[in-house]
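Lab meeting, item 3. Inverse folding demo.
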């Protein structure tokens, strides 16, 4: 039996347990940087599978599978954290933690990586390269667990040849995978703007500095930033998602707070846009007699997939899943802290379809077709095996 068939056989054999792992993690979600029980559960599974591991960045877990030598070091990453979302799926394994839910599929990623680790451990004698299993905390919250792990010496002992991660995608048919070479996801910065003026009675506008009107002008001008100022061909998004104006029908508040996001795919324009955001908000406030304080919290960088290795990964997935199950995909303006890995090492971040387009990520009803877990697990193991070979085989 060749290695591909062996991986398929093992993925099918361990499917029920891998699914049960997903359900356990889904039922017991934990927020970013608080993944204490999830981390302990992963460590317990690695120990059960005979995979040595170590801790990093408090809740991070690194498993290690060593081949017979002569190959390359491959790193596989999954996330541990959940979101502050109240689940509404009514699944028998729905979250038992009020206001916390695995609404982004990290439970699926972690289960698949554990399953892949078990498979790779079983075929360890066939491996040439070594495999790192990275279970990362805090993907959903700045500054991001990937950054923290790297700063604490994740690859201090030995650097990887490639870092690979999968992420589920509801819009993609069940079990299909999708890849994009080069730029894929945006950088993401958080905007916090406080508009200050002179509050007072709405019936006496001459005696107030209307913070609500100033905020409205700022919002309007900021939303034109991408169309008016962004260089041609560089995708950009600016949106204000939260406005807090604690006045009343006849009260102008002395302060209005705005919160939003700015996203793009070019670092030079990103820096220039930050300056323009400061100028727009400050000038708008001063022109209307008010004042403005702006805080820009710089978030994750843009995610860039290594073109050569992404093309190879798509080819390898086609070998495992079939040509019809592999697609190209367009850019996305969402963010992902896997970008920190991609800044330092050749990286492949790809998507696996969940088959439930109406149950989108980051919503209370998010769910997957669990049948995808079998092939998703096997595909990750296959990618690790193929990339671990030396030289990189076709």
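The presenter then showed the designed sequence:
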């Amino acid at each position: 039996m060749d290695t591909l068939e062996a991986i398929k056989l093992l993925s099918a054999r361990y499917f029920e347990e891998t699914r049960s792992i997903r359900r356990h993690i889904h039922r017991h979600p934990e927020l970013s940087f608080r993944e204490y029980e999830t981390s302990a559960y992963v460590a317990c599974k690695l120990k059960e599978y005979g995979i040595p591991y170590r801790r990093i960045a408090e809740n991070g877990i690194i498993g290690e599978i060593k081949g017979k030598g002569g190959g390359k070091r491959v790193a596989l990453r999954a996330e541990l954290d959940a979101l502050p979302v109240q689940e509404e799926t009514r699944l028998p394994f729905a979250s038992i933690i009020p206001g916390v839910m695995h609404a982004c599929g990290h439970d699926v990623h972690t289960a698949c990586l554990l399953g892949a680790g078990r498979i790779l451990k079983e075929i360890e004698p066939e491996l040439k390269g070594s495999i790192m299993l990275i279970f990362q905390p805090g993907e959903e919250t700045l500054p991001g667990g990937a950054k923290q792990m790297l700063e604490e010496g994740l690859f201090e002992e030995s650097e990887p040849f490639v870092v690979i991660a999968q992420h589920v995608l509801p819009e993609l048919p069940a079990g299909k995978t999708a890849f994009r070479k080069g730029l894929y996801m945006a950088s993401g910065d958080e905007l916090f703007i406080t508009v200050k003026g002179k509050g007072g009675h709405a019936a006496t506008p001459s005696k107030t500095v209307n913070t609500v009107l100033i905020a409205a002008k700022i919002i309007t001008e900021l939303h034109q930033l991408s169309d008016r100022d962004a260089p041609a061909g560089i995708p950009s998004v600016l949106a204000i998602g939260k406005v807090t104006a604690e006045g009343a029908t006849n009260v102008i508040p002395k302060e209005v707070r705005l919160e939003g996001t700015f996203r793009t795919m070019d670092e030079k324009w990103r820096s220039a846009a930050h300056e323009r955001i400061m100028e727009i908000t400050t000038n708008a406030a001063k022109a209307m007699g008010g004042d403005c304080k702006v805080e820009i919290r710089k978030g994750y960088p843009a995610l860039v997939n290594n073109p050569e290795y992404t093309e190879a990964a798509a080819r390898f997935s086609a070998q495992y899943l079939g040509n019809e199950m592999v697609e190209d995909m367009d850019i996305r303006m969402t963010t992902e802290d896997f970008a920190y890995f991609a800044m330092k090492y050749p990286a492949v971040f790809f998507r696996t379809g969940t088959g439930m387009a109406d149950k989108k990520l980051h919503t209370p009803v998010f769910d997957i077709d669990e049948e995808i877990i079998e092939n998703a697990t096997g595909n990750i193991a296959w990618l690790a095996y193929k990339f671990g070979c030396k030289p990189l085989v076709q």
